[in-house]
Amino acid sequence: MNRPVLTLLTAALAAHAGALTSQAAAEAQARTILPRLTLDDKIGQLSMAHVFRFTEGGRSAPIRADADATFRTLRPGTLLNGGGDAPQPNTPRGWADFLARLDTLGRANNPQGLPAVFGTDAVHGVNNVPAATLYPHNLGLGAAFDPALTREVALATAQDLRALNMGWTFAPVADVGRDPRWGRYYETFGESPWLVADQVEASVDGLQSGGVAATLKHFAGYGLPSLGMDRANAEISARAMHEVFLPPFRAGIRAGALSVMANSGSVNGVPVHASRTLLTDLLRSELGFQGLLVSDWNDIERLITTYRTHTDLVRAAAASVNAGIDVYMVPNSVEAYQGALKEAVQSGLVSEARLDEATLRVLTFKARLGLLDAPLTGSGVLNDHRDLARRAAAATLTLLENPADTLPIRRGRVLVTGPAMDSAAIQLGGWSVNWQGVGKGNVPDVPKVATLAPALKAAAPAGVTVSALPETKRPQLLTAAKGADVIVVAVGEAPGAESQANNPHLSLPDGQITLLRDLLATGKPVVAVLMAGRPLILPSDVQSRLSGLVMAYLPGTQGGAALADALYGRAGFPGRLPFTWPDSLTQVGLWSDRPAEGAGETPLPLYPLGYGLDYTTSVARDLTVTPGPDGVTAQATLTNTGERAGTVTVLLRASLPASGALQATSRPVGVLRAVLKPGESRAVQVTVPHERLSSWVGDAYGPGAWQLLPGQYTLNAGDGKATLSLP
Fold it and tell me: Where is the Glycoside hydrolase family 3 C-terminal domain (predicted)?
C-alpha cells in the first residue's frame, strides 16, 4: 500500500472512531485545496444554507429531485436546520439517511467534491429528534457543580450526533448569565465566570472527544443584555469583559473548541457582528483562537434591518467579514449574500487575502472532522442514555425550603397537581424537539418523558398513596386537598427560547400563584416543585407558608423520576444554586462577586450563590493554602455531620488585594466537592491558577492589563479561612 493511500485510510478510520485530525495536518490538507477554488467557490464555502433549500416545498419533506442543481448554484460550504426543523420522518434513521443523502449530493456537485458540513443546535442532547434522550439544560448542570458529569453528558450527546451523521453542534453556551430576566438565561451554566469556565471546558472536551465540533457561543458579552431583553445592547467595560465574560471562552479555547459563534447583540453600541475589536483583536489576537468563526442566524442582514448601522448588504457583508466572521448563517437569502460578498471583494472592500483566510478556516474545519476523507456513515441508531439522564437530573435538584421536615415523604396521602406535574413541554423547556419547545411550531412530536405525577405514583413506598388532579378541576382539587397529608404542586414556566422566553418580572403566571394560594388556604403542607430556567420571585405570602420548595430547573427526559427519588428520600438533594436568587426585581444585578458600592452596603439576596439544603448536614473546616509556581492549592476537610449520605459542595472564594478599582468582596474561584457517608470526613483539594486570582488593572478609560497584584489574599470555604501573600 503506498503512503498517500495509507494516510487517507488512517485519517478516515480516525474520523470514524471519533478522533479529530490535528490542526497542523488538517490545515496542510486544506492548503492543497484552496488554490483550486474560484472566487465563487470560496464565497460558497463561506455560506451556510438551510437544509430546506434542498427539500420539497422548502419544509420538512423529502429531498427534491433537483437538489443537485441547488448545490451547483449555491456551492454551500455548510448546512443547518433551524431549531426544530427536521426531515420526514423525524426519526434517528430518517436523520441519518437524510444527511447522508445531502452529503452524497454535496460531494457530487460542490466544487472539488467538497462536502457541506452540517451544523445543528444540540444543546441538551440531540434535542431536535423526539427519540433522543434530553438532559437537563445547562443551568441545571451548573447546579451540580460537577464538570465530570457535564463531560459525560456532552460525550453521550456526541455519540448520538455522530450516529445521526451530525458532526457540528452549536454548543456549549459559554455566556455568563448575569440577568435572569433574559430568555437565554437557562442556556448558561450560571453567573460565576470561573465556575462557568470549568463547565464549558468539560463540555468542549466531551463533545470533541466524541468526534463532534463544539461551538463556543455567543462571543462575547451576550449574557448582560439591557433590561434582560434578548439581543439588547450590553454596556460592558473592558474590566468587566475580561474579568466576567471572557474566562469561559478562554477555557473553551484552551480545551480546543473548533468553532465560535458571534454574539447576536451589540456591545457598547456596536453590533458584535461588525466589531473587529471583539472578533479579531480580542478573540484571535488576545485569546489565541485559531478555529472557525460563524455568525448567528441572519445577523449580517440585521446590521441593515435591525441595527441600521449599515446601509446595504454589500457594506454589511464587508464589515462583518472584515471584522472576523468566516461563515454566514444565511438561511433564507444565500444568493443575495453571495452576490453582495462578491461585489465587496471585486470592489476592494474585502481583500482576497481575507477571503482566502476565511475559506482556509472552513476547509481546515472540515479536515479536522475527517469530512474531506470519507463520506458519512452514521448508524441511525441512538444509544439508551436514560440512566445518565436520570443521574444528571438527580445531581441538579436543589432543595431551598423544608422548614418542618415535610420532606422526605414517608407515609400518608399525597396529592399531586400543577401544570408541570405531567408536562413534557414544561419539563424539557425550550430547544426541545422544536426551537420554542414541545408542542410549538412545525413539529408536533412529543418525546417520551418521565414526568412527576406518574413517577410519584409508580415509585410510592409502602404506606404512601398518591393521587393526581389537574389544576383545571379546581372544586374537585380543593376537596381532595382537604383529605391529603401532603400536597405536591409542580409549577413552572411555559417553554420558550430567546426573546420569546424573556421574563421581565421574574414571575410565575398569575394562575399558578392563585393555585398555590388556594392550596395553602387548606392548611395542609404544600411542597412546591419549580421547573424553570431562572430564579422566580414568589409573593411573600406564598413563599413564607410553603412547607417545601424544590428548584428542579429544566430537568430533561428523566426529571420526574429523579424528583420522585428525592421527594421520597431514596436520594438527596445534591444541587446548589449556580446563581444568586434575588428577593425582588430591584436586586437583579446582585451577583455573588458584586463589589460593595456607594455607602459600602451590599443587600442580602433571598438565596446566595451555592445555597442548597439536603437531608443531611455538613461542614468545611481546616482550610489550608499552599502557593505553587502557577497557582495556589487549597485543601479543606469536608465532613458529613448528618445521619444520611449526601453530596457536600462548598464554593471556594477569594478576596483580593486593592487594585485601584472596585473589587468583589469575594470571588468564587473553585469548588470543593465530595460524596460522603454519615459522619465521614475527607480532605479535598483544588488548584486555583494565578489567573483566577488576578485583576484587570486600569482606569475607567484607556488600556488595562491582567496583574497578579502583590499583597494578601484571603480564601474562604465554609467555616475554613486561610490567608497568604502573593506573588
Answer: 398-615
Phi, psi of 597 (to 5 degrees): -130, 170
The CA-based angle 18-19-22, given to 5 degrees, is: 150
Could you give the 3-state DSSP secondary structure of residue 159?
A: helix
- How far apart (Å, rounded) are the C-alpha atoms in residues 333 and 47? 10
Place of cell 443587600: 603
The share of the chain scoring above pLDDT 70, in percent, equals 97
CB 104 within 8 A of CB 96: no
| DSSP state string for 474-522 | HHHHHHHHHT-SEEEEEEEPPP--GGGG--TT----HHHHHHHHHHHTT
Q: What is the pLDDT of residues 397-428, one digit of tens each?
A: 999 999 999 999 999 999 999 999 999 999 99
Q: Is the peptide bond before 564 cis (omega within 30 degrees of 0)?
A: no
139, 186 in Cβ contact below 8 A?
Answer: yes
DSSP SS3 for 620: strand
% of the chain surpassing 90 pLDDT: 91
C-alpha cell at 395: 445531581
Indicate if the alpha-carbon torsion angle 676, 678, 683, 687 is positive or negative. positive
- Cα(468)–Cα(136) distance, integer angstroms: 25
Strands in 560-642 per DSSP E = 618-627, 631-640
Q: Cis omega before residue 690 (within 30°)?
A: no
How many other β-carbons are positioned within 10 Å of the β-carbon of residue 462? 6
Rg (CA), the chain: 26
Residues 6+ apart with CB under 8 A from 365: 26, 117, 213, 258, 259, 291, 292
Please give the distance of CA 89 from its chain centroid, rounded to a whole number.
Answer: 28
**pTM for this one?**
0.96
Give the neighbor-by-neighbor strand order of the sheet with 78-80: 168-169, 117-120, 78-80, 47-50, 328-329
* One-letter-per-residue 3-state SS of 529-542: EEECCCCCCCCHHH
**Is 165 in contact with 211 (CB distance < 8 Å)?**
no
pLDDT band, residue 324 (cuts 50/70/90)? very high
Instruction: Report pLDDT digits (tens) over 100-148.
Output: 999 999 999 999 999 999 999 999 999 999 999 999 999 999 999 999 9
pLDDT for the residue numbered 441: 66
Q: Record the cell numbers describing residue 268, joined without a space.
A: 457598547
Res. 8: pLDDT tops 60: no
C-alpha distances in angstroms, 469 versus 151, 417, 418? 39, 5, 8
> What is the distance between the alpha carbons of residues 164 and 119, in angstroms, rounded to a whole number?
12
Q: Average per-residue pLDDT in the chain?
A: 95
CA distance 130 to 403: 40
Task: Supply 601's cell numbers.
Answer: 452596603
Look at residue 18 in the predicted model and tell me its pLDDT: 65
| Cβ atoms of residues 169 and 260 within 8 Å | no
- Residue range 338-394, pLDDT digits in tens: 999 999 999 999 999 999 999 999 999 999 999 999 999 999 999 999 999 999 999
